Amino acid sequence: MSLKENLAVLGAAALVALSAAAPEAAQAGVVLKKAETKKVFQAAPAQRAPKGPKQPKEKKEGSGFAALSAPSVGVPTIGSGPLASLPFVFGSVGLLAGAAVLAIRVDDGFMEFIDEAMSKDVSTYVGNETDLK
Question: Is the alpha carbon torsion for 119, 124, 127, 128 positive or negative?
Fold first, then answer.
């Protein structure tokens, strides 16, 4: 048999296998029904009395510049605002510095590795590939 005949037989066998493995259309008989919601913990809606016409607001005495007050100035607490993140910033910097000191003490070649990594020229290519342009 030639290559074309082998491919034709293989293709026909693949089609037969796919058609035999194809699932039949399922008839599950599922009926979708919207569930009725029950308001167990809610009281019946209270009917409100209709509102009358709005009364005009009375003018306050002392309006103008005399009624304005300066904003209060105080020291913000650590629990809120931008100062709340400062302990976390200082803590993470301290944690990184402590990890670096620990790595230097434990591994003798750590500083050589860092010096070599920091001294590489990566201004042209990432891996210093001279063939890429």
Answer: negative
Calpha distance 10→16 (Å, rounded): 10
Which residue bears the tokens 């037989």?
A: 9
* Contact call for residues 91 and 97 (beta carbons, < 8 A): no
Q: Locate 64 and state its tokens.
A: 């103008």
Q: Would you state the structure tokens that stand for residue 96, as one six-digit string?
A: 């990184």
Q: What is the pLDDT of residues 56-94, one digit of tens each?
A: 777 666 555 555 666 666 665 566 677 778 888 999 999
Measured distance CA(128)–CA(119) in Å, rounded? 12
Q: What whole-number distance in Å separates Cα of residue 109 and Cα of residue 103?
A: 9
Do the Cβ atoms of 76 and 83 come closer than 8 Å?
yes
Q: Structure tokens of 8?
A: 């034709």
pLDDT of 101-122, one tens digit each?
999 999 989 889 888 888 766 6
H-helix segments, 22-121: 86-106, 110-119
